[in-house]
Amino acid sequence: MKTQVAIVGGGPAGLLLSQLLHQRGIETVVLERKTKAYVLGRVRAGVLEQGLVKLMEEAGCAERMHAEGFAHDGTLISYGEEIFRIDFAELTGQPVMVYGQTEVTRDLYEAREKAGGKIEFEVEDVVIRGADSDKPMITYTVHGESREIACDFVAGCDGFHGVSRQTIPIDVRREYEKVYPFGWLGILSNTPPVNHELIYANSARGFALCSMRNDNLSRYYIQCSLSDHPEDWTDEAFWAELKRRIPSEQADKLIAGPSIEKSIAPLRSFVTEPMRWGRLFLCGDAAHIVPPTGAKGLNTAASDVHYLYHALCDFYEAGSEEGINSYSEKALKRVWKAERFSWWFSSLLHRYPDQSEFDLKMQISELEFLRSNKAAQQAMAENYVGLPY
Ligand code: FAD
Ligand code: DHB
């Protein structure tokens, strides 16, 4: 098989790139290791920056998002019984969109299928060959049958555990990592959200987050130990712990119910440099991971897609290699800003095992500064709604 851009990974980054390129007449093939049902079953991100909203519009996939998603003009931050609001609309003039990653992915799959886009599921043994030549090639197997794709470019959108990053020789790659000594236990439940906006909570018992998908679908997270397993946590234990971590006014009105999904995610900051090797470009979680506290993972994957999409359009439409040559540098500049924000917001809100009394005082002092200082709120809001591309 032959194509212009071979895309490894059918998560949100790979699908969005594929659909955007299709709109400009550039042909792609997407290779996905799992089934479509599996990809759509992974409950993850819920907050979209305007940059991603605009990309979904450009991809022709924004209709359901605008009908069913919720624009949020602010968020609440609590510490102990204290609570305050960051007003995104007033500080930045921009809202964020609450719309699940599963729905983004579903809309993109639907658009690709409608357009007759080529997506291969359940691919195994993907090997990217000749990425440092001008004739890259991908070999893989599907249900035991060997196949290959000759292409002009490879987009590595295969997440943190994919093969694309590993294809870049170790002596060319530099990796930066911070692993956090805790995880997030998340549940989804068919209950009305405790509040119409998100609540990020710092408490003596650890972090908690109250989020939602719609009027009768709530998403809650609590900081947990890395040795915990979802089965260790009954629904009752989860609700009781969540209520202890948010102000009593919120806890008293929280409606509990059976969980329909329960999972634990570890927290990590990770960046690999460069994000390009020859004709291979890394996009999204394949190149970087942020702790989820700032809601930046999917959004940073989208900003990579934005840069790569424009670079490839410039190549095919104007014969310019400028965008391709500057892709890694441009993408990384924004990636590091998202890394900084996610690291800062995580350190503001979690309990760390080695935190001293002094460190705790610093955390509260920083929260009080944020509560009272417009400039600090402005910086937080600009980062949260998304820095410009
Ligand atoms: P992925 O979603 O990981 O997709 C990669 C795809 O590649 C997968 O489908 C995988 O099966 C496939 N693949 C892997 N290896 C291969 C291979 N060898 N061959 C072929 N295919 C392969 N981000 C936000 O912006 N906002 C949030 O609110 C937010 N909340 C989060 C909450 C949690 C609990 C978690 C865990 C994450 C959250 N994120 C959030 C992060 C966000 O979910 C990820 O950053 C996003 O999924 C990255 O998309 P991606 O397409 O780069 O990678
Ligand atoms: C959600 C996840 C996040 O990591 C976050 O910061 C905000 C919302 C969510 O799943 O709804």
From TrEMBL:
Stored InterPro entries: FAD-bd, FAD/NAD-bd_sf, HB_mOase, RIFMO-like
Superkingdom of source: Bacteria
Flavoprotein keyword on record: yes
GO biological process: benzoate catabolic process
Segments forming domain FAD-binding: 2-342
Gene3D superfamilies xref list: D-Amino Acid Oxidase, subunit A, domain 2 (3.30.9.10), FAD/NAD(P)-binding domain (3.50.50.60)
Record protein name field: p-hydroxybenzoate 3-monooxygenase
One Pfam assignment: FAD_binding_3
Gene Ontology molecular function: 4-hydroxybenzoate 3-monooxygenase activity; FAD binding
Record flagged with keyword Oxidoreductase: yes
Assigned keywords, A-Z: FAD, Flavoprotein, Monooxygenase, Oxidoreductase
